[in-house]
Amino acid sequence: MLKESIKNELERILGKENVLTSPEALKAYSYDGTTSWIREPDVVVFPTTAQQVSEIMKLANKEKIPVTPRGGGTNVSGGSVPWLGGIVLCTTKMNKILKIDKENLTATVEPGVVLQDLNIALAKEGLFFPPDPQSFLGATMGGIIAENAGGPACVKYGVTKQYVLGLEVVLPTGEIVNLGGRTIKNVVGYDLLHLFISSEGTLGVITRAELKLNPLPPAKKTTMAVYADVAMAGESVFRVLENGVIPDKIELLDNWVINRIEEMMPMGLPKDADAVLLFECDGIPEAVEKETEKIVDIVKKYGAVDVRIAKDMDEANKYWLARRAGFAAVFGKAKTVLAEDVTVPRGKIPDLIRKCKEVAKKYNVEIVVLGHAGDGNLHPSVLTDINNQDHYNRSVKAMDEIIEEAVNLGGVLSGEHGIGLEKQRFLKRQLDPVVIDMMKKIKALFDPNNIMNPGKIWE
Amino acid sequence: MHYDIESFVDIAKTFLRHDQIITEKEGLSHFSYDATEIRSIPHVVVLPESTEEVSKIMRCAYDLEIPVTPQGGRTGLSGGAIPVVGGIVLSLVKMNRILEIDTKNLQIVVEPGVVAADLQGTLKGYNLFFPPDPSSTVESTIGGNVAENAGYTRAVKYGVTRDYILGLEAVLPDGTIINVGGHTVKNVTGYDLVALITGSEGTLAVITKIICKVLPMPRIRRTCIVYMDDLIGAGDFVVSIFEKGITPCAIELMDNYCINCVADYLPSGEALRRDAEVLVLVEIDGHHEVAIFDEAKDIIDLANKNRHTIESRLAKDEMEAEKFWRIRRDTLPALKAKGKDHLEADVVVPRYKLTFLIQAIKEIERSHIVKIATFGHAGDGNLHVTIQYRKGNFKETEDAYTVLEEVYKKTISMGGKLTGEHGVGITVKNYLNLQMSKEEIELMKRIKMAFDPKGLLNPKKVFPDHL
To answer: What's the fold here for domain A1-216?
Structure first.
């Protein structure tokens, strides 16, 4: 329970309208994009300046109240769920694009800016922010940075951390510090900037970000390759890259997903295919043409039974809409979905897919595979129902085996979703106790009272 | 400071061969310097050949409380590899194996002592390349490049060293071996300790194994040279290239003084335009001939449309491209040939501010007696400033340091940083206060303490002597 005096103090800092304690409000901020982690905060606050964030943190630090930073709440590992109650610090009212600098290809934004809004504003200037988490309609920049979000386009463009030049952050103890800067190169001291990126809101609150941008590529082309065997699709992925072609996206949909999409919105996807790969090339028109030709040659050589090149933007958009609908299809078809984020070196994709099939059979559960094949970041998902104890237990076991296999294949637990609450119990399988200990030490240096998004990453 | 070197050597002898331990004076002096002019002789040098040996050395030094300075090819430009307080130099040059080249996943695993140029040579055979290559020196080792998060000419298109490091094996000051990161491009399991150790200048851990991303080797490159009569005009030219949607793999720039020094220095110097205010070198690379040729044509068009262009040329073949590059690469030797002492700064500003910074530096020069040369990476805003003076001359020396501080202050006022690719090391550490808040330095200090509670690893680096 929140003390009345604390509430009054928060209202003094932020104004009454920016401090919510109604049961409805607390419920609305009790969960994120996962559906299995729910916990209500005691209060939700909406600061509009770094100064206010600083005052909130000073108060919380003094009173030892947990603070969970939150943006759009679209994250899928439980990172923004207020696990120990306390304050949810929601940055959605800090949503101004402060500057778009065409000369330096940078933008300065507040943490609550929604990625889609940013990209719409940037497109007017012929620019874009390359990392593309598929929750871009609601995901905010602060969260994207805190989770080091990925997306399909990371095959070519890399992940969020490569596009953040500087951050203004408020430490758990209330100090406002500036990390990094506005330059591409910067080797002044330790890289605290990158320590902050992907720290899942456990080291401080991001209040402003300086982003690196790219010019919008003038041309794009989408190619779909159809496979009778999903493992062969996996092989095509690294064959394409090995041959010097780096598309901006390589996505995989398996048979189950294809059929669900066809049920929802028939678009002529090959229903009997074991899997399809969607390739997108971008760049200057001549290069895009050449790369597409090369992809067609390579996938044919490595087992694609059919190849379709989207004849225009409409057809291309249709394919990509299907890809995005894939996840919705998965979540729509089961009461509970265990959606994983394991990532393996690209060359190991066929092994991981084989394992998924084997495990599905062994535990008699349905496992769907779709995801960012281009960087080895698949999202194998087990369809289950948390209320059916027997089925759920088998599903959890299946998922455990897949994670184990991914780590054995030289992969990682999480490629882009983060550890949050969802993957804590697996952390020790991947990281040395010494390394976890080092991370905890760093956490304690920044946050001596453990008030900043406590209960996350490690158990 | 007295260290128990004798005990250390005795213990080291139990797990290292004779030739892996150096204690005689002549041998030690070889390990006393890097590419700066600073020198300091260590008490002992050890040359481990495996991670286990590094771990044992670190443990032993930890127990005996002897400082350790890790060292690679000693080509650093900020004094990071110099054993300023003596003690042990841990040279990684014998850990120089390329352990794995994985063409399926476009990644490699290497030991820290691998020489960058050797690595590129080997990768070429696989049609691959490792973009972050500070090619200025053939001797630089990958471990050092990672520890310094080295930059290079291609950073404008390909990013810095950090962007290519997926995982590290490292040894902590107490001898513990840790593995951070992994084999995947996407990895968000816990804090990014890879980024923290990368660029920490050998002060947090000794890097013993590196997993890096590599790329398919671009097949085509085209190189243009543009002489212009106005600095700001050159900055506008650079911006116009990006606005056209072209990201060159290098955009280099030299001022009039550098052009003239190189013209004096090179046998083929008469081909240079001594009258130009600035020379801009632009290179593009890629996999598709037609595309690259079109881009090259666009760049020349943009140059010719700019009213400040005096002359623009597209290299007709590799040989001519090499000639253009020679001008840029010989800049530093040409400046050195003037026979003066040098103070160097490695400042960086947002790209478009670069020519304004050069202009401001010219302004500074006017009210001083020393000569200032500027050249650098216009594509990423990284400017190398060379202040020429004579050490023997007290007035010039004093003036040179005053100018250096003015350059730093100007850089910061333009939103820039004290060092873009060389690191803080010894040469920049006492200017750190100009840039960083007390809170930030304090945070860094606490991190240093967490890794190295006894303060034995590469001491007296990065942090200012006085807060």
So the answer is: 3.30.465
